[in-house]
UniProtKB/TrEMBL annotation:
Keyword Cytoplasm appears in the UniProt entry: no
Keywords: Signal
Keyword Lipid biosynthesis on entry: no
Full protein name: DUF4340 domain-containing protein
Residue stretches spanning the membrane: none
Bias-annotated ranges (Basic and acidic residues): 29-47, 55-73, 82-99
Signal sequence, start to end: 1-21
Sequence segments annotated as region (Disordered): 28-101
Length: 377
């Protein structure tokens, strides 16, 4: 398994404030009557001046508020347009091909539907917070947290790239090929570019029909059903009967340490925190060497999956053994929570972000709990 490096970037926000002041009045040395009158007039003038000042301030504040509202509306409008533009750029219209030819390196997406039900979906989903080999995702029956085994994936793509749509099949008159309106389909998005970073620009949906007398199955390209091809039934059965578990790496999740800010760990006995700050590594409040930190970090993600979990136990039938929350340093990267529960005498179950999918050996979980306790001594 590939090793990962770590780094952390910090951002700051600066704010500024402003204020204003007001003034008073002066006394005179006149007779009592004159003083009283003068005071009354001064007070009246002062009141008038304050009213004028207050009126002016209100007007200025009203104008400032209007300008602020306009500015905020303009900012919101700009942000909305930017988001719309980004979404438009993200949605690319793929060219539908009549006679597709693709290589295993050019495939970017595979979706299998059987009798109208999607049973498997695999696609390349690049993101800045991922490592390149982790771009691939199985979104059905798993989600973006499952790490694809690219070696197994490319073996499947090698089979798909062997499909030949250059020569149509000879179909006897009166034969019902079954391709018209078929709901058993295979969608393949691909590119003919040799650039491995190129996105898909072409797509094809194959309609799977009935079998012929030679052990093949009739197939047509959606939109061009008048041209029918054949593919060996055994090949298609192997594809449609694939086990998704064979297509993932046997780890609960792959969390790039470059995108981690901290990890909260909770066992039955204690709670711990690992943190990366300003290029320094901390276990609890203690600064540690990078190697010490990464050794434990790799162990946290190295409990191997044994199998899929068919039926999770009820909450009152299981006990939490270990919980780890990976807090990310970038908003784009999702927070990952791994929770291990007791299952039976040999296995624990593991939930990824609240969804229990896999079984692991409880001996491996117990060993990790012990390793965590030792590391924090």
């Amino acid at each position: 398994m590939r090793k990962v490096l770590q780094k952390l970037a910090l951002l700051g926000i600066i704010a500024s404030l402003s204020a204003f002041t007001l003034g008073g009045y002066q006394k005179t040395t006149e007779s009592k009557e004159t003083q009283t009158e003068a005071k009354s007039e001064a007070k009246a003038d002062e009141t008038k001046q304050e009213e004028e000042t207050e009126s002016t301030d209100k007007a200025e504040n009203t104008e400032e508020a209007k300008d602020t509202d306009k500015s905020e509306e303009k900012t919101d409008e700009t942000e909305e347009k930017t988001e719309e533009k980004a979404e438009e750029e993200k949605t690319v219209e793929l060219e539908k091909t009549e006679h597709p030819t693709f290589t295993s390196d050019g495939i970017r997406k595979l979706v299998l539907n059987r009798d109208g039900e999607e049973i498997f979906s695999l696609s390349k989903e690049p993101a800045d917070y991922k490592m390149e080999f982790d771009y691939w995702e199985i979104l059905n029956p798993y989600d973006e947290t499952a790490t694809v085994n690219t070696e197994t994936m490319y073996k499947l793509f090698d089979v798909l790239s062997g499909f030949d749509f250059s020569t149509t099949a000879e179909v006897p008159d009166g034969t019902d090929t079954g391709v018209e309106g078929s709901t058993t389909t295979m969608q393949i998005d691909y590119t003919e570019s040799t650039d491995t970073s190129a996105e898909a620009d072409k797509t094809v949906t194959l309609l799977l029909g009935n079998e012929d007398d030679l052990g093949n199955r009739y197939v047509a390209v959606a939109g061009y059903e008048n041209e029918v091809y054949t593919i060996p039934s055994s090949t298609l059965e192997a594809i449609y009967n694939l086990n998704p578990f064979d297509y993932i790496l046997k780890i609960p999740a792959l969390v790039n340490i470059d995108t981690v800010e901290s990890i909260d760990i909770k066992t039955k006995e204690s709670s711990y925190t690992m943190k990366i700050k300003d290029g320094k590594y901390y276990m609890g409040d203690k600064e540690v060497e990078k190697e010490t930190f990464t050794t434990l970090y790799q162990a946290l993600l190295n409990v191997m999956l044994d199998s899929n979990l068919d039926t999770p136990k009820a909450d009152n039938e299981k006990e939490e053994v270990l919980r780890m929350v990976f807090h990310r340093s970038t908003k784009e990267a999702p927070e990952i929570t791994l929770t291990y529960y007791t299952y039976d005498g040999n296995y624990d179950s593991v939930a990824v972000n609240g969804t229990e999918r896999y079984l692991v050996k409880n001996a491996d979980v117990n060993a990790l709990v012990q390793q965590i306790a030792e590391a924090f001594k």
